[in-house]
Amino acid sequence: MAGIQNGQIPTLANIINSGVAVLTGTSTAGTLGSNTNGVTIYTAGAYGGRVYSLTGVTSSTVTVNTYIYILKGSTVIPIGFVNIPLSSGNTFAARFNVDYLDGVNILGLPQDNTGKRYIPLMPNDVLRATTLANIASGSAWLTAHGADYQQILP
After folding, report:
1. 9 to 67, 113, 147: CA distances (angstroms)
2. Distance CA 87, CA 96 (A)
3. Is residue 8 part of a domain?
4. pLDDT tens sequence across 14-71
């Protein structure tokens, strides 16, 4: 079986993939521009993928600042910095989760043919997140849904 050949471009991401990252306590506090204490949200397949949905919720009693990036081997590629307001998606009063791909939280993302923003990932790229400070109480959950590209046969 041959893989993608020179000149072939995968055009259909249709192998369903998803992931959840749990950010809590002191173990996920990181630094902008580094992979320190990063938590994996989504790992692209052997031919790459697209993250079509990235949302965050928290049970913390304070705002949780998250740093989103792609880890390509040992290289950190920053995507954005998003805060999750206290108790977002956790209580009736603050029931709305945060949409990272809404065009407000992370700027400059590409759009598909329907106008939906997505995060493109190359083969085996890892979408990761850290918090910028320790979460004293509660946790934050980031959920990604997407699809990986399939192999193109000659």
Report:
1. 30, 17, 16
2. 9
3. no
4. 788 889 988 887 778 888 889 999 999 999 999 899 999 999 999 888 889 999 999 9
Interatomic CA distance for residues 28 and 24, integer angstroms: 6
Contact 40, 143 (CB under 8 A): no
Is the pLDDT reported for residue 1 higher than 70?
A: no
Residue 39 belongs to some domain of the structure: yes
Residues 6+ apart with CB under 8 A from 32: 67, 78, 81, 132
- Planar angle of CA 88, 77, 61, nearest 5 degrees: 20
| CATH number of the structural domain spanning residue 86 | 2.60.120
Q: What is the reported pTM?
A: 0.86
- How many domains does the chain fold into? 1
Distance CA 38, CA 49 (A): 20
Please report, rounded to a whole number, the percentage of residues in the chain having pLDDT higher than 90. 49
Its domain, for residue 95, covers 16-149
